[in-house]
Design goal:
The chain is an alpha/beta fold. It has 14 helices and 15 strands.
Length: 374
């Protein structure tokens, strides 16, 4: 069997790619030839690579040009299966890691409103993505969609009519040897001492770039209702200064720490008390799985796939997106239990079954099933 993996920018360190790569190792042992189709790649890839890098100006031209070239490869029938991580009509398998773009635009229009709603509606790039998404999900060659949450699978089924049997929910796996509750003992005291944060101060951690989508403004505003507590932000955004000014206007600048992008987030997971992610839309962020694995309760919005894993009061809580008061309520409810071992154990147990080897078996099983039943 000849399998192609399509990723416009492939990095061996990406969450999805790490576990796809593990599955491909297992498939190679059975004689499967796997080719990476990409515009640009970083890290190690143990197989043939086809570089597709047509000239472009702007992201619309970039994505459309890449898509056309991949469709030409598909038409040549050089591969038995093509799995795309990009929105490209005609692939046999699509991994919906970013969820549904039309849903993201709908939620952003609701929360951002005003000029953003109008700009998104008429922006050529967004219109292209929505049209391409529609064509891809309704294409007769699409045989399987890998979703990272039931929220995404349900959305695709309802919006595009993709049969349930073609929708496969593979939750992101977590490296239990790297992300584990013992990080609290290893890093808590040292990180807090370095940052000047008292040992008993409740610390809420936010990890990720794209601050608007992550609902960071909601987290910052909520700090005004959580006197004495701190919010640590690991990540970057081109509008970061705007969020610094928001913290100043809310009178919480001294308790909101912008830590920037970090090569290793592990020490901060070990030093924090709660992982907070009131995202406007997030299919299933790796950062939440890693936080759970470290024993951190998670507070996430109902518009994230993570909400499927949360049992309020046991391993975290669910809040409404873009709702400052509801986020304050959730964090205040957890505050008395932050030193409780039971809640940390429940958090870690939440993702105990999400092992890389299980992910590998599911990928391998899907590929074999599709190859045996063309």
């Amino acid at each position: 069997m000849k399998l192609a993996i399509v990723r416009q920018r492939y990095t061996a360190f990406g969450g999805a790619e790490r576990f796809v790569d593990l599955a491909l190792d297992a498939l190679r042992d059975t004689g499967v030839e796997t080719t990476l189709v990409t515009r640009r790649w970083h890290g190690e890839w143990r197989g043939p690579v086809i570089t597709v890098a047509p000239f472009y100006l702007g992201r619309l031209w970039r994505d459309a040009g890449f898509s056309r070239h991949v469709q030409q490869l598909i038409a040549e029938r050089r591969f038995d299966l093509v799995q795309s991580h990009e929105r490209i009509p005609g692939c046999a398998i699509y991994r919906a890691g970013d969820g549904v773009h039309a849903t993201w635009l709908s939620l952003r229009a609701r929360f951002a409103g005003g000029a953003s709603r109008i700009a998104d509606r008429y922006a050529p790039y967004h219109r292209y993505l929505v049209r391409t998404e529609e064509r891809m999900f309704r294409h007769p060659e699409l045989r399987a969609v890998i979703c990272n949450s039931n929220m995404v699978a349900d959305d695709i089924h309802q919006r595009f009519g993709v049969p349930r049997e073609r929708l496969h929910v593979f939750y992101n796996a977590v490296d239990g040897k790297r992300f584990l509750p013992a990080l609290r003992d290893r890093h808590r005291a040292a990180v807090r001492t370095r940052l000047g944060t008292p040992a008993d101060t409740p610390v809420y951690l936010s990890v990720g770039s794209g601050f608007q989508r992550k609902g960071l403004a909601t987290s910052i505003r909520a700090m005004a209702g959580l006197p004495g507590d701190e919010l640590w932000i690991v990540g970057t955004d081109r509008h970061a200064e705007r969020y610094r000014r928001l913290a100043q206007r809310c009178g919480v600048a001294d308790r909101v720490r912008f830590l920037g992008p970090q090569q290793d987030v592990v020490p901060y997971l070990g030093a924090a008390d709660v992982f907070v992610l009131p995202s406007w839309y997030d299919p299933f962020p790796n950062a939440c799985v890693e936080a759970f694995a470290c024993g951190l309760p998670v507070v996430a919005s109902s518009t994230t796939g993570t909400a499927e894993f949360i049992r309020p009061g046991i391993n975290g809580d669910v809040c409404a997106a873009n709702d400052v008061d509801d986020l304050i309520r959730a964090l205040l409810a957890l505050r008395p239990r932050l030193s409780d071992l039971a809640i940390r154990q429940a958090a870690a147990a939440t993702v105990a079954e999400l092992r890389p080897d299980s992910m590998v078996q599911r990928f391998v099983g899907l590929y074999r099933s599709l190859a045996e039943n063309p």
